[in-house]
Structures are given as structure tokens and as C-alpha cells.
Design brief:
single chain, alpha/beta, 5 strands, globular
Amino acid sequence: MGQGTDRGRRNRLRRSRVVLAALTAAVLGVAGCDAVGGGSPGASGRPSPKPTPAWDTSPESIAAVGDSITRGFDACTILSDCPEVSWATGSSTEVDSLAVRLLGAKAAGRSWNYAVTGARMADLTGQVTRAAARKPELVTVMAGANDACRTTIDAMTPVADFRAQFEDAMRTLRRELPKAQVFVASIPDLKRLWSEGRANPLGKQVWKLGICPSMLADADAVDSAATLRRNTVRDRVDDYNEVLRDVCAKDRKCRTDGGAVHAFRFGTDQLSQWDWFHPSVNGQARLAEIAYRAVTAKKP
């Protein structure tokens, strides 16, 4: 009896040790999974970092690049820039620019306009380089109208060249400003601007000074040759806008207006009283609204 009792006691002790070892292994196994699992604290006990949001709807500074539209050309006086009414960075209360809407009182010291009247896409890289010195968190782009507004349709920038130039500007921007966001506005419908403005005698006289001759020359002509010329310009603008969308889509920190500027139906109130082609102060305000909606949207 004594020997059997000792043997039974030893068997129970071995079983207890086996159970304890199994439980210990299980606990250590679970702890090991938690230590390396997604979203769980790491070996240091700190939580894993969350991915940086792709788009910030409240940037703290803005630089604008582009052409005469962003300079407020012909919005205040004839054949002159008026940057205070720029849709992107202007200070005018009538416009309530994108910079003012986003930055409020800080806009005056944290927004910069590097657009140049007459600039084409080939000039954008230089503008971006100058803007980069300010280290803006958001860069706005509105360029391409002057690539279509040439002396003749043959002088318009080829689409392949336009693409290469925009890609070069974006590469430069990314090299200089790897974290900056980019908002790209579409090119307005130039044929619609001709259609609206041609009813104004003063506007047509100003057009003769050389404003977008590929579209606006012989403003009253509606023969087949004139119609073909204007439709060719219209189609080229469509091609440019497609390039803007395609190139921007390849950059996770780039966003377009979804074609909103091109689709906007500029009326007489939105056109310059001097040339009936560039946006008026009212037109600049409408552009600011479009940009603000696009930049502050939670998703593009």
C-alpha cells in the first residue's frame, strides 16, 4: 500500500507539471502575438504610428502659380494685373480668396502669388522653383489657357509637350516640397468665353489688341473655317485638361477641381468689363468658391 501510494503521488505531480508547462507556453504564445500584431504596442510598449493622412483640408500657407487669371488681369483696370482680387491669394473682401477662406487674418503673411500674366505651361517649373523658397503647405495651379491662346492654332502647344512640361513642374515641386499639397484648377472653356463676350462691342475692340487670337480673332465670323478654328482650340483645351487630371492623379498629394472651372458657365457678371474674357471681380469670387470646395472636401 505504501509503495502504491508513493507511485500515485509521483504520477499526479508529473501531470501537474505537464499542465503547468502547457499553460505557460500558451500564455507566452499569446503575449508574443500581441507584441508584434498590427496596431498593438511594440516591444517598447508604444503604439504603432498611424499613417499620415493623404490630404489636409486646413493647410497653413499657400503659394499660387499660373497665368493672368491668377493675377486678376483686367479685373480692376484695363490691361493690368490686379492681384488683390486673385481667386487664390487676393485680399479683397469682395472675392474672399482661397487664402482668406483657409487662413483668415493670417493670409496676408502666409500666402504668395507667383503667377505671371502670359505664362504658359513651360513657365510653370520656374514659378514652382520660386514658390518653393516659401515652403508653402499648399500650391495652387491654374495654367494652360495661354498654351491654347496663340496667334494661330498651329502655334498651340502640342499635347505631348504640355504633358512633359507639367510633369517636369510636378517633379520639381516634389523635389523641393516633398510634403506640400497641390490643387490643380481646370482650364476654362475658352469657346464659351468667346460666345459670351462677342456681344460686347468694347470687348471685341480689346480682343483685337491680341487677346487669345486663336479663339477670339474675327469674333463675328461664324463661317465653317472660323468654326473649325474655334472647335480646334476647344478640343485642345479638353486635351490639356485631361493631361492635368492624369498627371495629378499620379501624385497622392495632388487634387484637381474635377473639371469644375471648365464647366462653370461664366456670364456677363463674371467677365471683365474691360475685355469680356478674363474673370471680373465677381468671376474671381466664383473661382475662389470652386477652389475652396475642392480643397476642403474630405474626399476628392
